[in-house]
Amino acid sequence: MSQTIQPRTVSGTDQGKLDIRALVLLAILLAAGFILNFTVGKAISSVSGGLISPEFIISAFCLTILVVRPSLPQALVIGLISAAVIQITTTSPFVDFAAEGVAAVLMAALVKTGMNSKIKTFVPALGAFVTTVVSGLIFMAIRIAMIGAAQELVAAMLPVVCLTAVFNAILVQALYLPICKALKIEA
Predict the structure, then answer these.
(1) Do residues 40 and 54 lie in contact, with contact meaning Cβ atoms separated by under 8 Å?
(2) pLDDT per position as a tens digit, 49-104
(3) Which one of 10, 88, 107, 143 has the largest count of C-beta atoms within 10 Å of its C-beta?
């Protein structure tokens, strides 16, 4: 006797559940993002002369938030867990806790409002783009406050933030539906 597994719909009753399934998804996506940062990210950064520095960890938590649809406080937890992973490779310890915490909450808010609107199809790309830009701007503002040299840092970092945001938007949009399909979750 074969059983057919029905697609899981993320509904109001599923929202905000950081259960084992959600945490495993986050762990898998963060691990993939971490590995991709060390390999593909470094290669893209080298080829582009540092103009594009993909931050796959941001893509990972954006995808997790899209699939899990956590509450805002739980999105903050996802952002802080993501920031903890980034600490292994960062050149600016602890800055990412502020940047990723705020960015994850923003992503959750965008998903919460956008997935119930006419722009639902574009929420993965739009959310990842805005989230990456906000994360990058927060990171940049804290770095400027720490070391000064505002004009030089803005000139150097702003193009990197914007190009990385475009890259993350494309990546998240491309992966969202296949992940939903693989997890048998209705998009």
Answers:
(1) yes
(2) 766 677 899 999 999 999 999 999 999 999 999 999 988 877 778 999 999 999 99
(3) 107
- CA-based torsion, 8, 83, 104, 132: positive or negative: negative
Hunting for tokens 């893209």 — which residue is that? 44
134 close to 94: Cβ distance less than 8 angstroms: no
Exposed / middle / buried, residue 109 (Cβ in 10 Å: 0-12, 13-18, 19+): middle
Query: Cα–Cα distance between 126 and 168 in angstroms, integer?
Result: 10
For residue 98, give the H/E element and its range.
helix 95-114
Q: Give the list of residues 6+ apart from residue 64 with CB closer than 8 angstroms, or none.
A: 22, 25, 26, 29, 78
Query: What is the spatial distance between Cα 124 and Cα 31, in angstroms, rounded to a whole number?
Result: 20
Contacts of 160 (CB under 8 A, 6+ apart): 50, 51, 52, 53, 136
Find residue 65's DSSP bridge partners: none
Sign, CA torsion 9/14/16/21: negative
Reply yes or no on whether the pLDDT at 181 is more than 90.
yes
